Amino acid sequence: MTHQAGLVDVLGSAAAGLGVRGFTDTLGFGDVQHAVICLLDGLGWRLLQEHGEHAPTLTAAPGRSIDSVFPTTTPSALGSMGTGLLPGAHGLVGASFFLPETEQVLSPLHWDAATSPIAVQPEPTIFEVVGRQGVAVSSIGPVAYGESGLTRAVLRGAQYRPAEDIPQRVQALQSATSGTGRTLTYVYWAEVDRVGHASGVGSKAWHEAVRRADDLVAGLQSILPRDCAMLVTADHGMVNCPPSSRIAIESHPDLVADVLTIAGEPRVRHVYARPMHVGDVAARWAARLGEHARVFTRDEIVAEGLYGPTDDALAERIGDVVAVAQGSTSMTSRRDTRVSSLIGQHGALTAAEWQIPAVMFRGEAPG
């Protein structure tokens, strides 16, 4: 699979704009003193285009579509943004996946305290590399995420500045960019994704969440120093998966036969099979799901290139069989009943999930 400019290039482009050697500015930061990344979780490019009246600040600025990564889910996407590597190289291969070294399923958004984030993802982060070159690196987000396993795995190396609401984030960015040296600042906003999961894309609550995200962007834009570029992007988009489109895995004996465990999420399922039964499991899943999902063996999906160049050791984390939903299909499971019950989902390869925004703002406030 050919990967165009995408989320994997975001921090590297910012680093290049700051003059850090070894990186390429593919996204057009230019020569800057301050680079800011604002990530709006779940606000895909297609969604922004279709509902742009609720985001006037974002739609008025120059922007384009770039690619997320597969699977289009937060751990894999933030792993790629944070390391500059595709998931096959950083190893966060899904919303949850089997970790052979612990013989447990790891859910990176709810990290097991006994599992070392650095052991799971030992590659250096771009924050670490840039920080060693004299750039002041900051990460702005809720206090609860400051020491999370996912932060320590893929976003370590930044000074964490806790901020819960829009004014606190604006104040934190102003503080981060107030010095005379070079700065790289990451701002995270979760609400669009959270509301989309619960209420659905296009709902009144979702439109209100998009407006608040746009208010955040407007607030950040208002205090950008002159020698500053801010890229607004997302980790993935989202699709609505109504109850009528759900396939309940455990309700079909052929989908659980010879299966040891199921991980992933409703749009991308990792299926771990009994030894010597992978072919049978793949055939049964393909027959049952038909046009509702593409079904791969591990070897097939790696060869397809969906994970990018894949380390042999990390490939063992990928399911023996991987099912990727088509259309609005949701493959629900008793193993994650709350997630399976949500109307808004992501993880698969539809344009609404895969395409994310790259919207650039330039500073106008006095430096």
UniProtKB/TrEMBL annotation:
<dbReference type="Pfam" id="PF01663">
    <property type="entry name" value="Phosphodiest"/>
</dbReference>
<dbReference type="InterPro" id="IPR017850">
    <property type="entry name" value="Alkaline_phosphatase_core_sf"/>
</dbReference>
<dbReference type="InterPro" id="IPR002591">
    <property type="entry name" value="Phosphodiest/P_Trfase"/>
</dbReference>
<protein>
    <submittedName>
        <fullName>Unannotated protein</fullName>
    </submittedName>
</protein>
<dbReference type="GO" id="GO:0016787">
    <property type="term" value="F:hydrolase activity"/>
</dbReference>
